[in-house]
Design a protein that fits this description.
The complex is a heterodimer of chains A (115) and B (329). Chain A is 78% helix and 0% strand. Chain A has 5 helices and no strands. Chain B is elongated and about 85 Å long. In chain B, the strands form 3 sheets. Chain B has a 5-stranded parallel β-sheet, sandwiched between helices. Helices cover 50% and strands 18% of the residues of chain B. The chains are: A mainly alpha (115), B alpha/beta (329). At the A-B interface, helix 2 and helix 3 of A face helix 1 of B.
């Protein structure tokens, strides 16, 4: 059994495992799919921000939020939700700031998974 | 217990879709996965998908749009739809339900709740199936003859009336009828009992069904009387069919206590080409008259309606042709 996640853990493992019926291997597979998806969506998001394309910012933010929520990644979920909202309101500077938070949350997740 | 229905999972997020699939399979559902709205539509419009989980936001067509399309399609067998979304405002819920969704769940879904909601969907589908099945059985009861399984009197008369309407649209289209009586049926009943009488009717029915064209309709008109409606059939051809039926029944043998029972039919044919203004009642009346004549002339024979419209020569030819069929036996 894994240890209890602390408040600041990037992954709420217990909650994520509950969603996949306690299947550790399946959760690992989903986390690797998440990383592949992130590697694809993150540059697309950076490009949308550079192009001032608020619609795409909102859509990509929405997508990452959904995937993060499914795997119980609270920091990534919160940052991507901020991106989605900022994109929807056309606040692209706020979206850029939230994108930086998203990237650092993603780093935290990777370290957590590697550790 | 009936097997669980197959569920369509329409979700563009691969993680969400994999988690849904894994859970649904562990609960015993068969699943089909679509990764965009267009793929989802291809599966939804087919007959097998009765339960669907649709993501609200998808490339191609979004969940509410798919709901609207499936409701407009009105396909047989209801499709129960649960819309999945991270939207949760009251207006979103109203919009989703108004588009035709049956239920609404906010993502990430709680799986115990999803399982219960899918069971609700399954119950509704099972109820609909039961209702359709009852309707089908009621339809059978209302339209079929309980002994022979062929159309009952009311239904065969309705077929006749519908076909007459087609016939009246003109052209060369002609419709024919044959009214049939089992010879000496009362005597069979009196001598061998009603069970043998029933067996005779069943045997004759099978024989008639075997020897008519696939698009002809046969019904039980009365006790031992049958009515056959033959669309797109001239007097000549109805004479051919009637003669075929007469010969086939003549060859039937029914085992009874102490021997074998031979059967025969008297048949009266009418064709719409015989009359200037054909109507269902007229066709029955003329078939009946022809049947009466066949009986008068000794039974086990085919009688033809007596009138023919059109120029005299043509009329004679038509009648002669049909008569040759029944006289060459």
């Amino acid at each position: 059994m894994s240890s209890n996640p602390s408040e600041s853990s990037p992954l709420n493992r217990a909650e994520a495992l509950e969603r996949v019926g306690g299947d550790e291997a399946f959760l690992e597979e989903l986390l690797s799919i998440y990383q592949e998806e992130f590697a694809e969506k993150s540059p697309a998001l950076a490009e949308a921000l550079a192009n001032q394309d608020a619609k795409s910012v909102r859509e990509i933010g929405h997508y990452i939020k959904g995937a993060s929520a499914n795997l119980s990644l609270p920091g990534l979920q919160a940052a991507s939700f901020d991106i989605e909202k900022a994109g929807a309101d056309g606040r692209l500077e706020d979206a850029k700031a939230a994108y930086q938070t998203l990237l650092s949350e993603y780093d935290r997740l990777k370290k957590h998974l590697a550790g | 217990m009936s097997p669980l229905p197959s569920v369509l999972i329409a979700e563009d997020d691969p993680i969400s879709s994999r988690i849904l699939e894994k859970n649904l399979r562990s609960w015993g559902y068969e699943t089909t996965v679509a990764r965009n709205g267009n793929q989802a539509w291809e599966t939804l419009r087919g007959p097998t998908t009765r339960l669907a989980l649709l993501d609200w936001m998808m490339p191609g067509a979004e969940g509410p749009e798919l709901c609207r399309r499936i409701r407009a399609l009105n396909k047989p067998g209801y499709t129960y739809i649960i819309l999945l979304t991270s939207r949760d405002s009251v207006q979103d819920i109203i919009d989703g339900l108004e588009a035709g969704a049956d239920d609404f769940m906010t993502k990430p879904v709680n799986f115990a709740e999803l399982r219960a909601r899918l069971q609700t969907g399954g119950r509704i589908i099972a109820l609909e199936d039961k209702l359709l099945d009852s309707q089908k059985r009621l339809f059978e009861l209302a339209t079929r003859d309980s002994l022979t399984g062929i159309w009952n009197r009311a239904t065969i008369l309705r077929f006749l009336s519908d076909e007459m309407a087609h016939c009246r649209r003109g052209g060369d289209y002609s419709l024919s009828t044959i009214l049939i009586d089992v010879d000496y049926f009362k005597k069979i009943n009196d001598t061998h009992g009603h069970l043998v009488g029933d067996k005779v009717l069943s045997k004759v029915t099978s024989c008639l069904e075997k020897h008519i064209r696939p698009y002809d309709k046969v019904g039980r008109y009365g006790g031992d009387e049958f009515l056959i409606v033959l669309p797109n059939c001239s007097l000549y051809h109805v004479a051919v069919v009637a003669e075929r039926l007469r010969t086939a029944v003549e060859k039937l043998k029914i085992r009874v206590e102490g021997g074998v029972l031979n059967l025969s039919l008297s048949l009266g044919c009418a064709s719409s080409e015989c009359f200037r203004r054909a109507a269902g009642e007229r066709m029955i009346k003329e078939s009946d008259r022809a049947l009466y004549k066949a009986k008068q002339e000794g039974r086990n024979r085919v009688g033809l309606c007596s009138e023919l419209k059109g120029p005299k020569d043509n009329r004679k030819e038509k009648k002669k042709g049909a008569r040759r069929v029944i006289e060459s036996k």
